Amino acid sequence: GVIPVAIMKQPVILIAGVDEALRRGVKGLLIRHGCEVTESFDNTSTLRSCQNRTLHLVILGPSGGDGWDG
What we know:
About 35% of the residues lie in helices and about 20% in strands. By secondary structure, it is of the alpha/beta class. It starts with 11 loop residues before the first strand and ends in a 10-residue tail after the last strand.
């Protein structure tokens, strides 16, 4: 059956590694559409966010100089 919108969980979206102007714009758009938005500014906090909560979507920007390689 169909789940009524009133009882659906709010989607949780992480925005990581995106420049400030783009992050603000995307965050505002997502919030207006009923999403909970969390932000991360470095690889460590991004990984921690992914481990500590259920995320519905992760938006990753370019890794820049610090990269993701171990």
